[in-house]
Every structure is written in structure tokens, then in C-alpha cells.
Amino acid sequence: MLEELKTFIAVVEIKNFTKAAEYLSLSQPSVSVHIKNLENYFGEKLIDRSVRQKSIKITEQGYLLYKRAKEVVSIIEAAKLEVKIDTEYIVGDIKISAVPSAANYILPKYIAEFSKKYPNINIELSIKSFDDVKKDLVNLDADIGIIDRKIMSDDFEQQECFKENMKLIFPYDYKTYISNIHSYENLSGQNWILREKGSGTRFLTEYFLNKKQIIPKSVFIMGSSYSIKEAVKNGMGISILSGSACEQFENSNEIFCMDIDNEFSRTFYSISQKNFKPKRSVSLFLDEIKNSDAQI
């Protein structure tokens, strides 16, 4: 409706459809459609057009709408300016403590978008283990924590942030090792590479192995997604990584990634100290995540 009102104002002031279209960088048919939409909405004739004389005449109802349209557009433009000024002058800082999968692969894009909108809010992101994220909150070393599984404690406020799919990863020439990767039975008797104890990826991998009754031949432990990728690339075995981590690697033709059931996706949560009122900057950041596309 706003664009139609702007078009109508231009036509009334310029008194010519073609010139109004040029002024607005629109096609003349688009201008005609905007005017027709307004007439249909208000149920009144707003502009009389003379094809023969190539002139237009604004009706009485048209002039009434023109006056109100100017007021509406002026109010909206003022509101836009006020909001822009408000966001530019919000200052503050946010300390985020996050598990590696969130800190390395997911949060940077949210922080980048947030910083464009709120350039005067400083953000410090620390990469910590699941347990250390909780410690940072208890010690007031962080404003919010981002973890990859739900906390079973009443000491923290927690809410869902985003969900992420997990993927099986294989050496790029996986057919040399496994004839049919789509049959989970063929994943038994293979070398498996797992993250360290306490890792959310380790937890989900073990859940997957138990649920699918997969028995590894040997198990190797690696301390990061990158080291797992390198191990798989070099033929040490197969593993499971987050979808966001796989995005960084699979386009390099070094590993092959395959989706697994949604049952094995994981949910990330934001946590904060209970009974602590969050700073405005923190609330704005969490709202930004909540209102974004939260499925990775």
C-alpha cells in the first residue's frame, strides 16, 4: 500500500503518468496498476484520464486521498529516520561464550548481520566447552552462552536458538572402502573417528551408532572438526559432522558428505543466569537470532 500511495502522490503532483513513471523509475503500466489498486481498495474513482487529450484530472476523492497520503508517507518516513537513528546510537557490549560448533561455524554470520544493524555494539566471542560455558555464566564472565544441548538445571534461563542437521562424512573416494553407504549395515566394521568426550558432536555420534546398531572396527578420537575432516580425507575412517562444518569442507572435493535422518539433528540453546535482567544489547542480539532463519 505504501508504494501505491507514493505513486499516487507523484501522479497528482506531476499530472502525467509517463513522467511520474520516469520520476519513480517504474514502467508506465506499473504506475497504472498502482492507481487501479488504490481505486479498488477505496472503491472510488481517483483520477479521470482523457486518452484523446492525453490529460488527467484529479477527482474530489482523489484530492482528499492525496492530502492523507502525504501525511501517511511523511509519518512513515519520519519513523524510519527515528528508528535508524535509534539503532545507530545504541551502544554497549556483549560477551558470548559458545561451544566450538556454534562459535566456529554458525554465530559469525549472525554477528556480522547484527553488527551492520548495530555498529556501536561491541561483541566478544569466546570458544569454550559445554561445561566451561556454564562456568563463564556463573562467574559473570559472559552475558550469554550458546550450547548444543539442553541443560538439566534450574540455575539458568534457556531458549532455543537454531537447529542444525548432522551429516555422515566419508573419504572422497569412499567407494574404495564401502560399496553402499546408504545401507547403515555397511557402516559396521569400519574405522570411526569421534570427537572428544563432552562434545555435542560426540554425544550425537554415539547416539547414532547405538540407534543404528553400528559396531566400529576401531575408534579414533580427534579434538576438532578440522582434525576429523583431515583424518577422513586421508582415509583413516568415517565420521559425523555438523552440516555447517560440512559446508566448509565438502566443496573442496576432499570429503563426501551425506545427510542423515532428522532424528539426529541438534538444537542449540542460549542460556543466561536466572533472575538476571539481560542488557538491552543482549536482548537485541537474541531477538535478531530468533527472527532469522533458524534452521541451519
From TrEMBL:
Which superkingdom, per the lineage? Answer: Bacteria
Record's InterPro entries? LysR_HTH_N, LysR_subst-bd, WH-like_DNA-bd_sf, WH_DNA-bd_sf
Listed GO molecular functions? DNA-binding transcription factor activity; transcription cis-regulatory region binding
Alphabetically ordered keywords of this record: DNA-binding, Transcription, Transcription regulation
Q: Where is the HTH lysR-type domain?
A: 1-59
Pfam families per the record?
HTH_1 (PF00126), LysR_substrate (PF03466)
User: What does the similarity note say?
Assistant: Belongs to the LysR transcriptional regulatory family.
Per its record, how is this protein called by name?
Answer: HTH-type transcriptional regulator CysL
Origin species, per record, is Peptacetobacter hiranonis (strain DSM 13275 / JCM 10541 / KCTC 15199 / TO-931)
Gene this protein is translated from = cysL
